[in-house]
Amino acid sequence: MESSDMNDSGLRTAGSEQNLLSRPDGSATFTQGDTSVMAAVYGPADVRQNKEIIDRATVEVIYKPKSGMPGIREKSKEQLIRNTCETVILTAMHPRSSITIVTQEVQDSGALLACCINASCMALMDAGVPMKCLVAAVTCMLDSEERLVLDPTDKQAKDALCLATFAFDSTNKKVVTSTFQGSCTMQQYQSLLASCQTASQKVFDFYRTSAERRLAKS
Amino acid sequence: MAPPREETVESKSSENLRVLPGDDLSDVFISTRGSKFRLGPGLRQEGETVVACKCGILRKKEPNDVFWIDNHQKRYVPVKGETVLGIVVGKAGDVFKVDIGGSVPATLSYLAFEGATKRNRPNVAIGDVVFGRLLVANRDMEPELVCMDSAGRSGGLGIMSDGGFMFQCSLGLVRKMLSPKCTLVKQLGQVMPVELAAGMNGRIWLRGKTVSSTITAMNAISSAEFMTESEIRLMVHRLQDSVSGMWSGIS
């Protein structure tokens, strides 16, 4: 298990392990503090007739909560992860096939969506799915005294004025996905976005160090 | 570009560079500017730049500057001309459907065997293991297998009959095993005679004289994935000792 301390950047300690499941084509766990998600990728595989797209691959995401049946909230999370991953996957390279990502929540202690996206990205890398670039997601919030908190825990997020998750691509550091709960001013939104953008670099650095360590073994 | 990568470019040669999807590799290709070079799997051209689209190690082959990315992938993507091991999963008219581990099953014509004619059909049953070469493999078409070369000879291809055992391994292991540098098969053959067929889709079929020798050979091959050449030599050496010990114990 690779792990790196990100305290200087305001992010919680991140850790990951790739290729830990034998059945899927690619798999990874990603942990941020106590939040932990496991992701598995199957593909490019056979696709059901009604989901087939003639000129590109169908990207499917299944989100499994820790307990209970997936509901509307989970479906919307699936949709967010799907759209984020589809923008970076080179779907035109494998037309009429499916790329399925299964994300399993292991522990939710805040910033779960960001953790899901990061785990999916690492699993896609492990599976060797062709990608334009990498994607990293970071969550941040404003607390009751309007102070900015990066990568908040679920306890911190309880009394948040607003909570935002942004995903960035690795080449241009541009926003891929943005979700927002609560309300804030324009300036506050810009500062949330800017601090997430700088913090995403730490996640990209983490991807690189863990990939290099993994490749060094072979 | 991120500062850590520039350091790696400076400190290491262009070969065996570890790359991630989205890495701009233009600075690696500056040295080859002017001369022609080819981009293999995992590399794409984006306008004037070359970008990686897979996570792995950048490799280079000298004679005509071929670059590609080597990675540990499990899913097979069919490539024209590669030999693969497949399982016959169905018959549809005059073609067989063969599972080769790709996204769709490959087709295999009943006429694509040595000596096959419309009268003289090959004896193929569902569940058989076939060793074939990919005649057609591109992303827009169904892959097509043949079990003979252009001259109509089998050349080792065909149905894997009379016992034997097929197992799944990573694509990287097969590539490593078949590379000219690797002496695993040669060394293993000196310890115990085995018939072996390695498909580029991560499947290996083998048949030893006895069941135990088949299992031993399988274990030796699957354990060699992350071994260096000297470690393989040591492993086969140890295997030789234990095999000879085992046989002397029996007799």
From TrEMBL, chain A:
Whether DNA-binding counts among this entry's keywords is yes
| GO cellular component terms, A-Z | cytoplasmic exosome (RNase complex); nuclear exosome (RNase complex); nucleolus
Task: Just give the chief location class.
Answer: cytoplasm
Subcellular localization is given as:
Cytoplasm; Nucleus, Nucleolus
Question: What is the protein named?
Answer: Exosome complex component RRP46
TM region(s), chain numbering = none
Supply one GO BP term: rRNA processing
| Keywords per UniProt | Cytoplasm, DNA-binding, Exosome, Nucleus, Phosphoprotein, rRNA processing
Xref: CDD domains: RNase_PH_RRP46 (cd11372)
**Quaternary structure (record):** Homodimer. Component of the RNA exosome core complex (Exo-9), composed of EXOSC1, EXOSC2, EXOSC3, EXOSC4, EXOSC5, EXOSC6, EXOSC7, EXOSC8 and EXOSC9; within the complex interacts with EXOSC3, EXOSC8, and EXOSC9. The catalytically inactive RNA exosome core complex (Exo-9) associates with the catalytic subunit EXOSC10/RRP6. Exo-9 may associate with DIS3 to form the nucleolar exosome complex, or DIS3L to form the cytoplasmic exosome complex.
Domain Exoribonuclease phosphorolytic: residue ranges: 11-130, 133-191
Cytoplasm recorded as keyword: yes
Q: What GO MF terms are annotated? A: DNA binding; RNA binding
Q: Which family does it belong to?
A: Belongs to the RNase PH family.
Q: Which SUPFAM superfamilies match?
A: Ribonuclease PH domain 2-like (SSF55666), Ribosomal protein S5 domain 2-like (SSF54211)
Residue numbers spanned by region Disordered: 1-28
From TrEMBL, chain B:
Choose one Gene Ontology CC annotation of this protein and give it: nucleolus
Question: Family, per the entry?
Answer: Belongs to the RRP40 family.
Where does the record place the Exosome complex exonuclease Rrp40 N-terminal domain? 38-75
Keyword Nucleus recorded: yes
Subcellular localization is given as:
Cytoplasm; Nucleus, Nucleolus
Residues forming the K Homology domain are 164-211
The identity of this protein, by name, is: Exosome complex component RRP40
Gene Ontology biological-process entries: CUT catabolic process; exonucleolytic trimming to generate mature 3'-end of 5.8S rRNA from tricistronic rRNA transcript (SSU-rRNA, 5.8S rRNA, LSU-rRNA); nuclear polyadenylation-dependent rRNA catabolic process; poly(A)-dependent snoRNA 3'-end processing; regulation of gene expression; TRAMP-dependent tRNA surveillance pathway; U4 snRNA 3'-end processing
The cross-references to Pfam families, in alphabetical order and at most eight, read:
KH_6, Rrp40_N, RRP40_S1
Q: Which UniProt keywords apply?
A: Cytoplasm, Exosome, Nucleus, RNA-binding, rRNA processing
Q: Mind telling me which SUPFAM superfamilies this protein's record contains?
A: Eukaryotic type KH-domain (KH-domain type I), Nucleic acid-binding proteins, Ribosomal L27 protein-like
**Molecular-function annotations in GO:** RNA binding
Do the record's keywords include Disulfide bond? no
